[in-house]
Structures
1.
Amino acid sequence: MTGIGGWTVAVELATRKRDEAGQALAQVLRRHDHALQQLDQLSSYAADTQGRWSVSAQTHTSPQIVGHYYQFMARLDQTIELQQGVIDEAHRQCLAARKVLMEAEVYLASLQRLLEKRRQEYARLAARREQKQTDEFASRRRTAAPDTRQDKP
């Protein structure tokens, strides 16, 4: 069974890499979710601000305040666009991490199948050796034992 030891180590390493890929995917998914939450917060804030402005704009406001409002909303829109870029990048990272995880799982499965084949092969060889030894032992026993079925007069 010494030949299986190398395969076992390979399976353990592949399992570790698969687990690391799964953890990396989970981390990227958390970043993606966090980015989505931030986008939701920014969008809600922009909608609330615009709603408040609509109500307060009905009263007399100075042109300077109107200018500040539009500048602020333009910056808020830029921030929302930047956050959408962060989400897009996080999405690309999620896809890449999923691909890495899938490849690691496929590699691990192939190593596990190969290890199982090797184990079966070693078991067959051991069974053949044992059968051969049993046959040789029986053959030696037959030739060494005197014929006990001789006719006695």
2.
Amino acid sequence: MWIGVAIAIVGAFAASYFDVKTREIPNWLTLGMIATGLILSSIQIFYGAPWVLIVLPLALSFPLIWLMWRAGLFGGGDAKLLMGIVSLTPLFPDGSSFIPTFFLMIALSTFMQFFIFGVQEAIKRKDGKALVFALTPAGIACFVYFITHSFLISIFFLAIAADAASPFLPYRKKVEVSDEIRGEMLAETIGIRDGNIVRIAEKPSFLLKIFSRKDKLDEVIAAPSHTGISADDIKKLKVFCSEVYVFPSHPMAPAIFAALLIALLTGNIIPTR
């Protein structure tokens, strides 16, 4: 088990380095992690490890990761990195299931990613009003911990509050419509309603996305997609507008690496046996 954990840590660190330096995670790294992980998991089952705690979480996590990628939460390289990590570390060293705890940490980091980037941008812009919203989630988390004395519950409230505060932080940037924005994540839906161009901002809050009402358009020119802005989108956008808003792209691998370390340090917080 420790071999898989060690490879996962080294692999996630390497992926973070590549993601920050080149903005790409090489396939040889992630596919190698997946293959090695599946081999090690098979060996663990052969030598008596409870196959249910290995096979079932892997069978559920792979489609979940694919759905998260399709939802645009992260890129293809990040998805393969996640698959590599869960393949390498299906169990904690004590034999309990690692994957539920790891996905909890991934969910929390995903909830907070726009918040973290928004705080960085607010600091750069010296936006005092935005920084007040930035401090609110931390205050809520501290209050919850004071009431419950539960680190896990306070982290949950931190993630939820950070997600809710994200729209009040600078979370998007304006760029010129050109071939250079291909692959960028569009931060608005642009369409036509009653003969007029309509632009609907895409909120960075996952909770607001769930509860927000969908605006109807007669025709959609371009909308946010997990694959980013396509060449066809650019061709259509050039006809109707010269500038669009996009989400600033940030490397996700460091957040995944951090989630891995936190999960390993926290230990099994979700009883699975």
3.
Amino acid sequence: MNKLYPLLFTPVLKDYIWGGRNLADKLGRELPAGIIAESWEVAAHPDGASVVANGAYAGRTLSELQAELGLALSGSRSAWAEERGKFPLLVKLLDANQNLSVQVHPDDDYAQAHEGNE
């Protein structure tokens, strides 16, 4: 195992219909042409995982590192992540170029009973 160091990630970009082009200006990044609705800055999600952009782990996804390193990566206070084998955070920036609907998320008990490990 390589020694851990500050990781930099290549974000996962999502192009939902309600997105815009503001993230390029706000983040000072060159982004691909077209609509960018979300930039997943730190993600180990089945729909997209950030890729390490620097150092010995460059080219590896955050999901791969979580599986390999476990609590050494996510910290000893994140037993939930170790128990379920997932990184405990999804950090995303949104460019809502249109009004969005309200989203209500269930509490932990309901989610575990009806959504399982998601």
4.
Amino acid sequence: KWVGYDTRAFGDFGGIGNTLTLEKVNIDTQSIIVMYTAPNQIPLNGFGPGTGAVSFFPYGDAVVAIRGLDGIQYGGTARFGAMVTPTDGSVGSYGYYVTDARDVTPPFTPGALRGGSHRHEPSGDGEWVGFTYNDQIMESLGTNLRTIGVTKLGLPVNVDSALGNQNGNFTVLVVKVKPQGEIVPGSDDIYQGSDDSWVGEYGYQKPDGTWQRARAFIGRTVTESGGTRNEVYIADIPEDITVAGPDGPLEGTETTFPMPPAGTVQRRLTYSDSNCGGIIRCSLDGKWIAFTRGGQVWIVSPLGGDPIQVTTLASSASKPWWDPSGAYLYCISDNSIWMTNVIEGDPAFGESVRITDPTLYPGIPPDALCVSPDGQWIAFNRKLDRGDGVTLNQVFIVAIRKLAILDIKPGDCPNQFTVNKQNKGKIPMAILGSPELDVADIDVASININGVAFPVKSPSVADVSGPGESVCDCGTGPDGYPDLVLHFSQEDVVEALGLEALSEDAEVDVTVFANQNDGLEVQATDCMTIHFAGKGHE
């Protein structure tokens, strides 16, 4: 229900060094809360400290954002991750928590870095923060290369007291870079890592069934002909990041970069004939990594293999973002947001649908897509002149779908579904109406279960049930809102859900999909338990 943002401007008076606050806006009420205010900020001088680039944690009431250092000019090597919790505005200017420990005075400290972090992204379990990084020590030597690091929260690191040093959490680099002139042309070495993202909510699944935490990113390498090329890379990250690896100390030296921990594996995933780009975005199940190439959106597996082109839009596509279901990718093209089918094996794979009006704000395309965790909304920016010549990002939202409650066998709880040899008869299901959903707006012809369409038997509208506290709870009886009552052939349901392949007492999530008359998708979900009539089922 909340969208977080910073209040930076653009042009001569812009940038994070001039940004005073982090805010959030409620998508229902449009009420705004200032979550954090940077202290001692002199307007428009760019010194800092500044704050910006905010991200919510997946659990709890917390955000992480860039904050500049006190008493030091804001810059790419002089900033860190600040966690703000709670986000109700009660936290003072110094009520933040430092995420990444920082030590710029020799001897350096293992678990602390020596520069600036930005684009902080919490992991799906909320236990790590990933970021891009520039090293202050190497910058002073003329080698200012961007790379990628991670912080493991809850693992404290204390450093010497000095200007620019900060206690924080154990932090390391996970991507190895080297100066462009030292790279062997045609090798997989890189001189920049950026535009990174966590792979999956909890990582990706390896062929042996284990799960691997990783960050995917764009690496800049040198081609055989001596040119430069942006490619997709991945860094596998060990759970224990406290042990130094073979390339050198975690904290670096006075003349070398900090090096990745033992067990870190850096791999190249693409070998393209044109630059890969965009900020990497990964599906929540960890199966696919999305990026752009040649003006279209592509995906590649974290396990490797050939990339797959998923869009064929007439205008250049950019800024991909995954639907939480993994079934769709969103992107920007032709002054609009588009939704593209990426369901493996689906005949409609690669088909794209425009979901915002291209005639709105001509020449001011959507930007910075962000899909809500429940998949109902996309938040995005447009840069608008506020009337005095200052350009600011404004926050917009567009509905993708409505989520509703399904009640299987209304009045019967728990929902036990009996599979037998004949599978004859009908099974009733009700899409429950609510203040947000008028079931009279549903196009019955569009209804399907778990993506499989078949005839709906005898639809009717009646108030038969109300929602429980959560999706799979029993209905509460009539609640004053009309419901759409559907009757499906039991044989169709068994086939569509593959119920005969399940075991006794298996619990199945059932989702009925439909479209409103205006085209907006509705998803209604309930659960049922499988019972097999007769003996001998295994």
